[in-house]
Amino acid sequence: MTSSVSHLFPKALFPYSKEIKDIATSARPNVLIDNENQSLYSILKLIRTELIGKKLHDGQDHLLMLDLFVNEFMGFDDIRVRDYYPPVNASRLDEFVKVLNEHANAQSLGLDCVLYYILKDFDSGIAESYIGSVDDITLRIPRCLYHFINSLYYLDRFDILRCTRHLNCIDNFTDIPSSMIKRLIQMSSIVPYHSQSSPDWSSDTGLKNYINVHTSKPSARSVISMVRSLKLNVWLSDADTVLMYIDCLTDLNPGISVRALEELRGNNTNVSWRALLKLLIIKILIKSIKQQRLLKTMLNESKISHLQFDQLFKGIAMFALVDTKINDDILEALYNMTSVGDEDEELSTLKEQSPAFFAKYIDPYTRDIVHCANNLITWKLQSVA
């Protein structure tokens, strides 16, 4: 490794001061913000402060995945990447490269990955040439590391599709620090998932999809895609990750989330099965509350008929809890939710472990949950009779 590699970055192509419209599509951040007349520098700073800093609230100082790669994967925890990247000018980029080069020594692979990451901002062709990428071969860094640094690059730009596409090319993640794995999932929770297809809202199926999409978090599919791409046994993860997964899986498909809990019974988990069941029920009830509100709005605005309302109501989330292999457990949990008395011990433990999750997603619906639970008890008893 030479003492300076700043010559790799052609100053005539310096991308960070240019307006977004002048940047190649592969380097354009995929974020839902007004980016007219803003530079790539401004957009990346905005991602740090507004999107990551304010939405994650994890005390990690507005870190991009690039920061964690340098600090945790390469082990250079004394480098404050945010002080250098995105660079405000070419001189600042030279300083960043110099600091990295001084630290590198035995970490030449890691340095090559960071240089490749930065070069992608300049020109994807230059970046691929630097690492000697030809067909399915990379000469400068191992193929698995190539896919990993690409996944970080695209996640930092809120492009979950290309991020997970690269992660799916990695066989195992044993060499990746667990803190980075957790951060990947955390980041996916604030990244909207953009489907390339446009559903037909005029059909019955389209209406059901419309209701499901509009009562789900935009990032739900991103989280599920991330967990699957990482080949993670999510049930053995920390409480925050488990709760996030249950939350998103229930948003996307309540029936599948119930079946997952049915199959999970008796297996090892980091969170008790009964606590997971109670959380699942609560999330399904909240999903049902949102669906009922949306249906009433659509009916009041004459977007659907009374007949369509009745048909669509039969498909709301809570009916996934009516006929299951764990009926007795569900009914017992529902009775506990509607009874007056001490706070549920298992849920209290979960709340202590993940207070932010409960404050944001559970607590605002407490009163409605009890009402919905009472209705569901009635329907469950009628279905058994």
From TrEMBL:
Query: Which Gene Ontology cellular component terms are annotated?
Result: nucleus
Q: Where in or outside the cell is it found?
A: Nucleus
- Recorded superkingdom: Eukaryota
Has keyword Nucleus? yes
ELYS-like domain location, by residue? Answer: 71-187
InterPro entries reported in the protein's UniProt record? ELYS_dom
Keyword annotations for this protein? Nucleus
Instruction: Please identify the protein, giving its name as recorded.
Output: ELYS-like domain-containing protein
Q: Which organism is it from?
A: Cyberlindnera jadinii (strain ATCC 18201 / CBS 1600 / BCRC 20928 / JCM 3617 / NBRC 0987 / NRRL Y-1542) (Torula yeast)
